[in-house]
Structure formats: C-alpha cells, structure tokens
C-alpha cells in the first residue's frame, strides 16, 4: 500500500524527509548528511550573531556594460581632456557634491544617496569582473572574457545568498532577477548569477519578460480556460501524491530541476498576493509614466510591487536594445557621449529618481536598500571611435535608502578618475555591507559540497556609509 508522507514529515534524527532525500541524491549533486547537518547548525547560529535589519528589501540596478564614472558620480571638470565629461557637472542637494550634468533628477535626491568612488575589481573583462561584483569573489583567472559558469568559479551570488538566509513569502521567492539574465554577445551567460555550489534550491528566480508590453503577464500565472480553481486544487493534490511516490525512487537530475520549476509555478498560481504583484494594470497611468514606459522603467516598477508583496531582493538587469549602438547598453566602445545623452542617462535618471521618490512617499525608503552597480567602469581616455573602453582599476557605485548615510561620498580617485587614491573598496566589501544591512552576518558559515566551511562574505562592512 502506498503511504503518502507529509512534506514536512521528520525522521528520527529530526531531519525532514525532503532533506533526507537531498542527502540520498549524492550522485545527482546532493549534499552528504554531515554537510547537511553542518549547514543546518550554521543556519541556526547565524541568527544569534545577525546585525539588526536595516534593509527589509533590496532593489539592485545592474548597469550591464559598466558605470561611466566620469559622467555620473566622479566627474573631473578640471581634469585632462579625455577624463572630462562632454556634458560638464551640476550641483546637487548635498553641499560640495557635484555629479554629471545628465542626472538632474537624481542630483535632487543625493541627501538619500551614498557614493563609493574607489570601487575596484582589477579586472577588465565583462564576465570575470562581473562575476566578482555579483559574488564578491575574484574570478580565476582575472580578465577572462566569455567566462562560463562552473567550478572553480561557482560561488553563490548575492541573490542566492538572499534565498539562503531569507524565507520565501506569499508564494514569492525571496530573490528574483528580471527582465533577463546577463550574457555576452552569442548568449554566453556570465558566471555568478546563481547559487553555484550551494545547489539549484537556492537559485534566484530568473524571469525573462517585458513589463512594458500591453499584454504583459508571467506565463506561470495564467490558468488554462478549462481549468477552474477547484480543478487546479485537485490536480495540485494529485501532483503532490505522485511526487511523494516518486520520491522513493532515484530520479534523474533533469527531473529534479523540473520539480523546482513545478513548485515555482504552483506557488505563483496558488497565491493571490503573488499574482497581484505582477499585475501592473493596478498602477495608475501617471505612475507608469513616471517610471518610464520602457522595459527598464516598468521592470523597476514591477520590482517595487514585488518587494511590497514580500520579495526580499529584486535584481534588475539593464535590457538589451539591439536596434541601438552598443546594443543599447553601457558598454560604450562606440559613440560614448551620444549613447549617454540619447537614452542611457535619460532612462536611468528618470527611473532611479522615480523609484526613490515613490519609495519615500510610501514610507518604504528607510527600509529598502537601492543599489546602482555594474561590473566595472570606463577608461579615462576616449578611443578612436568616440567611445570609452573597459576599466576595472576604479569606478563608482551608489546606494540609497535602508541603512545608508545620505549625502556621503567615500573614496577618492586621481585627476583622471582612473586609479584610487584613498578609500579603496572591493566587491567583497560591497557584498558584506549589503548583507549587514539586510540583517545577515557576513561571517555566517556556508558549506561547499565537500563540507568545507566558508564565510558568506570575506569583506568588511563599509562603516563610512552605514547609519
């Protein structure tokens, strides 16, 4: 007779049945029992040393191609010709702080913003420098373009660490990436975007979508016309029973991956709050216009709705625009200034400022950390195609909101914004700071598949920008 165990049924040693099944799948990339128990002990101890939660939620802007420090947070109006921005600088709300002239709306909000002017990866390739910014761990080797996911470069991303330490709520995962993954030309996907050695369980949900479309919806949220809510509940019950039976049989890794997708879809369909979070039609026309009717702008508006519904971290990748030079991204090897003035900075300035103002008006800014980051910066000199090339020696990133000291600039660069002079920081420090603000101890212990312990971050909290 088939006996269906509840999904949380425990074994005699307190390990749940699903955890035991993970242990049983050694040949499928599962964990050993000692590793599992060690991970559970680490999870329990992490809470005892956790800092106070200052950022209940995180919205992360990822500017694929790199942040142009000369035209944003570290302009050099008196620097050498190549280092000077064509557009000059403007004053901000913060006395003594000037930023690039193409960000007038953001300039009015610097009392909420902290800037790191001397971030450094020492890496000049998109995928390997990106890996370091996504995980806090340098890629082996440095400056490896078209690097692909996999050992030894399989450290979990910030998004994945969020899934480790923050629970899923209301049918929504604690970390979501949209509107697409990050990849080089030819769909060469960057490493550092998933859970790596922690396993697929902790992967962030990655949604490929265009929230600016009139018929926008997430396919998983749509029931077929012939399936009523009652029929859905019955099918869900049957699916759980079948899975319970199959759990006693060794299954292939592809089947386990399918289970993850099935659980995601069922969670979304079953949760009203989750479905409503994706319904942008509930926003006013004025609000949607305020964020900008672009894929990027509407993705950020969707991110705000997702954190309101319970998602802890939403990571927004700058979308490709293949009809534009440089694929519409921040990798401005050609026509740097034309690209910035034509679409990059107008879109970023409008949407970033709209989010900060919207969060403040809703009383959410003090508990929401907003990050402006990319994989590296740009060269101090203009190349032969009126563009700027890759530069990992130093660049700027910015933060606003939850737990951040507004109106602060940390770090100093030389006259070309090419090399750090003081206050140099690294991706691991950025990672430690974000975890700290989320109430997660950066020294919390993780274990790799061999059971070896690692801290969640090897960096230091950047106290100069934290309240």
Roughly how many Å apart are the termini? 60 Å
Query: What are the low-pLDDT stretches, counting only 5+ consecutive residues below 50?
Result: 1-37, 245-255
Largest sheet: 8 strands, mixed
| CATH top level assignment | Alpha Beta
Specify the number of helices: 12
Count of individual beta strands: 18
- CATH architecture type: 3-Layer(aba) Sandwich
Which secondary-structure class do the elements indicate? alpha/beta
Helix content: 25-40%
- Strand portion: 5-15%
Name the overall outline: globular
Rg calc = 23 Å
N-to-C order of helices and strands: HHEEEHEHHEEEEHHHHHEHEEEEEEEHEE
Strand line-up in the sheet with most strands? 8-5-9-1-10-13-4-14
Q: CATH homologous superfamily?
A: Alkaline Phosphatase, subunit A
Q: What is the domain tally?
A: 1
The overall average pLDDT, rounded, is: 86
CATH topology type? Alkaline Phosphatase, subunit A
Task: Throw out a few tags for this protein.
alpha/beta, Alkaline Phosphatase, subunit A, 8-stranded mixed β-sheet
Protein model, in words:
The structure is a single chain. With 467 residues, the protein is α/β, with parallel strands linked by helices. The chain is built from twelve helices and 18 strands. The chain has an eight-stranded mixed beta sheet with strand order 8-5-9-1-10-13-4-14, with helices on both faces. Strands 2-3 form a two-stranded antiparallel sheet. Strands 6-7 form a two-stranded antiparallel ribbon. The longest helix is centred in the last third of the chain and has 26 residues, at 336-361. It is globular and about 65 Å long. The chain starts with 16 loop residues before the first helix and ends in a 12-residue tail after the last strand.
